[in-house]
Design goal:
Layout (H helix, E strand, L loop, with lengths): L2 H8 L2 H17 L6 E5 L3 H12 L3 E6 L3 E6 L6
């Protein structure tokens, strides 16, 4: 076998398919969902400080009950 034949065999689709699958799985794994937190909602001031401590200023309330709130952290705004 010559060097050219070895290089041609190494770049067959059988070799490229696992490499591409590993790359795609790695890219999909990096896109995690936004964190969600369950916070007590007895006092609005305490709730706002807890939400800010968990998420910074970028959060939204998903669900609110009489004594709890489900908060999702959002990505920061792009400037």
């Amino acid at each position: 076998m010559t060097l050219a034949e070895i290089d041609a065999d190494a770049m067959t689709p059988r070799f490229l398919i696992p490499v591409l699958l590993a790359f795609l799985c790695g890219m999909l794994g990096c896109q995690s969902p936004q964190p969600v937190h369950l916070l007590k909602y007895n006092d609005p001031h305490v709730f706002k400080s807890d939400a800010y401590a968990k998420c910074g200023q970028h959060y939204t309330i998903i669900e609110q009950g009489s004594d709890y709130a489900l908060v999702e952290c959002l990505r920061p705004y792009s400037d």
